[in-house]
């Protein structure tokens, strides 16, 4: 069946390109990712590409060399420049027989893409250390490019259109004024992305460009291309969901304005009758929650309105949570731009249901493979944050859905050039968006220095290696012990920051597969796990819950990651 949207793009190709946000001069167009203040990736042949009239000759002058190419029959041109060491600022001239376009203040350094959902999106203005960080954000060799949020059923050639005076959708230079601007990105650029860039500036000494492409509440399948989902074995349910939207697009688009108007009318009525009063109730509830937390009490349950608010009609294109849509709108427009690697923080959107959490072990590696395939720059480093602790403290040593997402993330380390910091000690039981982004960014930077820059340093906490059954005990061995194992997060000198005696987070089970809390003791470079009620143990789990209590670290200050020694299938039901 022919795709009506694809046909539309086919026949209106030049018109669409002209309207796309990007750098335009005469008949030649560049994607918005190319422009003044851009940072180009060092030590690789730099790709430059754009559009022009068919057969138009393009000359690019950069670093005392001229590179030539000819626009193809598809209206596109592409050229690879030389490979350069870090430095700058430089200028680049792109010209033909009828024009010359000059791009200024170009630096050569390392370019990283920060992507994922809301915890990557979380802006520096709302981060708990943000005010101080913004005031000191004077490093002119950190540049940002924020990709405006956009979703689409079909791959886009350039980013969503933005006002000419916006700081979004263009390369901008770091400054306190920029990061404090409420119109820049979402409450400023990604806090994790900014702190990560600062760490790399200190460790590498080269300019750092951060591209931000993220959207809260989005699942992994929204960030994978249609081709990626179709690859064998295909994720059929997501491919079918995409195709259904394509097939129904024209009819849905026709009825959408009427449905939207009806919804807006209903919402006005609801706000008058319910919403305005409910907002006051919620404000009081917020205050009660803060008071309860400060006094160590259980926060009150969130109140519900006397009548639910009306639901907005479905977007004809599906929305940001739809398979392929975020890839199409926010990754496709920057594909093939030269990058050092990716930092990724996502997984919450695939952890609400157990089936989705289990599927993540296949879906997430597919995303990485897909991006590397589409980018055509080899196995660039892909670093991802393991999910933090969240929700009520664990009641049992094996519960919840997020443990299965974390295991999927752990298994994804089997892919080349991947790395993962553990942050199960840096979350917030009551907030899915922890306001502390310093720890995740610092640990990401440690992983980057090891994986992407080949530094010999401690970048990981203890990693499960093997187990040995010794009577009614199980002895656990670890890799990445480094200076040694310790109970509780150590201070900078390697000693426990507080007097912590009990090692927590371990569960043990026998052949009945029922885990109970266990006594765990550090014995040299191992941990001995036992429970007097389990005479014949065969398996151990550590930090296997949404909000686990584990406190095993190495003396270098990095936490042990969740693990299990068994390969038992997930339970049919789990606690939420």
Descriptive overview:
The protein is an alpha+beta fold and 576 residues long. The chain is 28% helix and 22% strand. The protein has helices at 4-11, 13-19, 118-121, 130-135, 176-180, 191-204, 226-230, 236-294, 325-331, 354-375, 402-411, 438-451; strands at 22-25, 28-31, 39-41, 47-51, 57-62, 65-70, 76-80, 87-96, 99-116, 142-146, 171-173, 208-214, 341-345, 382-384, 418-419, 463-470, 473-479, 485-487, 506-509, 516-517, 519-523, 526-530, 539-542, 552-554, 563-564. The strands form six sheets. Strands 3, 5, 6, 8, 9, 10, 11, 12, 13, 14 and 15 form an eleven-stranded mixed beta sheet that branches. Strand 1 and strand 2 form a beta hairpin. Helix 6 packs across helix 12 (438-451) and helix 10 packs parallel to helix 11 (402-411). The protein is globular. The chain starts with a helix and ends in a 12-residue tail after the last strand. Residues 1-20 have low confidence and may be disordered.
* Helix amount: 25-40%
- Count of helices? 12
Query: How much beta, percentage-wise?
Result: 15-25%
How large, in whole angstroms, is the Cα Rg? 26 Å
Topology:
Elements: H1 4-11, H2 13-19, E1 22-25, E2 28-31, E3 39-41, E4 47-51, E5 57-62, E6 65-70, E7 76-80, E8 87-96, E9 99-116, H3 118-121, H4 130-135, E10 142-146, E11 171-173, H5 176-180, H6 191-204, E12 208-214, H7 226-230, H8 236-294, H9 325-331, E13 341-345, H10 354-375, E14 382-384, H11 402-411, E15 418-419, H12 438-451, E16 463-470, E17 473-479, E18 485-487, E19 506-509, E20 516-517, E21 519-523, E22 526-530, E23 539-542, E24 552-554, E25 563-564
Parallel strand pairs: 3-9, 9-12, 9-13, 10-12, 13-14, 14-15
Antiparallel strand pairs: 1-2, 4-7, 5-6, 5-8, 8-9, 10-11, 16-17, 17-22, 18-24, 19-20, 19-23, 21-22, 23-25
Helix pairs in contact: 6-12, 10-11
């Amino acid at each position: 069946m022919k795709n009506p949207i694809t046909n539309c793009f086919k026949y209106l190709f030049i018109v669409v390109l002209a309207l796309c946000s990007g750098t335009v001069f005469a008949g030649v167009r560049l994607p918005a990712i190319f422009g003044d203040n851009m940072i180009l990736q060092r030590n690789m042949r730099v790709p430059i590409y754009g559009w022009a009239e068919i057969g138009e000759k393009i000359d690019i002058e950069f670093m005392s060399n001229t590179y030539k190419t000819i626009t193809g029959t598809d209206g596109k041109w592409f050229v690879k420049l030389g490979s350069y060491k870090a430095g700058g600022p430089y200028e680049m001239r792109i010209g033909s027989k009828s024009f010359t376009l000059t791009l200024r203040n170009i630096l050569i350094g390392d370019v990283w893409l920060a992507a994922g959902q809301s915890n990557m999106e979380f802006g520096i203005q709302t981060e708990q250390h943000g005010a101080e960080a913004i005031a000191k954000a004077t490093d002119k060799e950190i540049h940002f490019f924020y990709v405006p949020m956009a979703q689409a059923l079909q791959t886009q050639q350039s980013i969503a259109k933005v006002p000419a005076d916006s700081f979004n959708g263009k390369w901008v230079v770091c400054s306190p004024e920029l990061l404090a601007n409420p119109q820049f990105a979402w409450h400023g650029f990604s806090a994790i992305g900014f702190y990560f860039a600062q760490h790399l500036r200190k460790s590498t000494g080269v300019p750092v460009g951060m591209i931000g492409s993220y959207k809260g509440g989005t699942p992994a399948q929204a960030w994978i291309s249609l081709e990626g989902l179709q690859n064998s074995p295909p994720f059929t349910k997501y491919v079918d969901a995409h195709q259904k939207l394509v097939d129904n697009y024209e009819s849905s688009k026709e009825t959408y304005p009427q449905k939207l108007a009806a919804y807006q009318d209903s919402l006005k009525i609801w706000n008058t009758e319910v919403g305005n009063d409910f907002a006051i109730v919620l404000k009081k509830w917020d205050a009660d929650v803060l008071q309860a937390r400060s006094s160590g009490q259980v926060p009150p349950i969130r109140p519900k309105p006397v009548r639910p608010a009306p639901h907005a009609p479905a977007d004809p294109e599906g929305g940001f949570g739809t398979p392929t849509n975020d890839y199409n709108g926010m990754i496709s427009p920057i594909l093939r731009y030269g990058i050092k690697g990716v930092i990724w923080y996502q997984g919450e959107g695939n952890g609400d249901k157990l089936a989705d959490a289990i599927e993540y072990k296949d879906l997430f590696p597919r995303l990485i493979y897909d991006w590397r395939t589409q980018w055509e720059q080899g196995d660039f480093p892909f670093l991802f944050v393991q999910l933090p602790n969240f929700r009520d403290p664990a009641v049992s040593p094996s519960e919840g859905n997020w443990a299965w997402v974390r295991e999927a993330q752990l298994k994804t380390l089997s892919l080349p050039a991947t790395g993962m910091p553990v942050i199960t000690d840096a979350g917030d039981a009551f907030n899915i968006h922890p306001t502390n982004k310093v720890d995740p960014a610092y640990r990401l930077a440690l992983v980057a220095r090891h994986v992407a820059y080949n530094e010999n340093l401690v970048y990981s906490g203890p990693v499960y290696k093997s187990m040995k059954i010794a009577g009614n005990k199980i002895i656990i061995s670890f890799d990445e012990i480094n200076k040694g194992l310790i109970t509780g997060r150590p201070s900078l000198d390697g000693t426990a920051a507080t007097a912590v005696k009990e090692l927590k987070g371990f569960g043990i089970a026998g052949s009945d597969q029922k885990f109970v809390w266990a006594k765990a003791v550090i014995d040299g470079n191992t941990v001995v796990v036992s429970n007097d009620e389990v005479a014949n143990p065969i398996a151990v789990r550590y930090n296997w819950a949404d909000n686990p209590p584990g406190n095993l670290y190495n003396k270098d200050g990095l936490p042990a990651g969740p693990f299990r020694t068994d390969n038992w299938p997930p339970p049919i039901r789990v606690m939420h």
